[in-house]
Amino acid sequence: DIDAGILDIDVQGAATLTAATWTVDAPLTKFYNTATAKPVVEIRNFNSDTGGAGILKFVKDKGTTAGADGDLIGQIFFNADDDTQPEPVSTSFAKIRAAVNTAANDSESGRLDLYVATANGSGTGLDAGLTLTGSSTTADEVNVTIGKGLTSTVTTAGHLAVTGNLTVSGTTTTVNTATLTVEDPLIKLAS
Q1: What local confidence, expressed as pLDDT, does residue 46 receive?
Q2: What global pTM score does this model have?
Q3: For labelling, which of 3, 37, 130, 178 has a CA lying 20 to 30 Å from the CA of 150?
């Protein structure tokens, strides 16, 4: 056991820590380096089977308290300095957030949100641009929300295949194409 206010390990070269379980009970753990593209945190698995892989696991353990809809499981933030001078401000430019959508036993479903920074000239915030939500009532169903608000634009560079129904809700629909092929000979206008 090491019981100290500060444990500073300075290794010139490689160091190996071998343990069945390594537990760090601290509110903040930092890895830092001043070299370009460093530090690197690598999770490596040497097993030769096809199913063996490294795992980075976030666990929300509430002890004897039951899980609840909306419980936050984990977040990954991506921060960088903005262009404020003379002292740049560390700003969250993106984050990944995982949460419980439905906690009911045998009806569990999850939610994953990808956020990016948006600004209106008077402040910057993080908004979900992509949300994946699992269904708690229909197996193998994942609902996807793309964009934030009516002014968001979704662009696909290649082909877009819609295998189900397509519903367009809006005041203007523009089709800019050389050839339009419709299987049904009946097209209803002003219906």
Answers
A1: 83
A2: 0.80
A3: 178
* Dihedral sign from CA coordinates of 66, 60, 19, 45: positive
Q: CB 94: neighbour CB atoms within 10 A? A: 15
CA distances from 22 to 8, 17, 36 (A): 17, 9, 28
Inter-residue contact 99 to 62 (CB < 8 Å): no
Write the DSSP assignment of 65-129 as a string of letters: SPP-TT-EEEEEEEEEE-S-SSS--EEEEEEEEEEEEE-STT--EEEEEEEEEEE-SS-EEEEEE
Dihedral (Cα; 18, 29, 77, 114), 10-degree rounding: 40
For residues 40 and 95, the model is more confident at 95
Per-residue pLDDT band for 2 (boundaries 50, 70, 90) equals low
How close are the terminal C-alpha atoms of the chain, in Å? 76
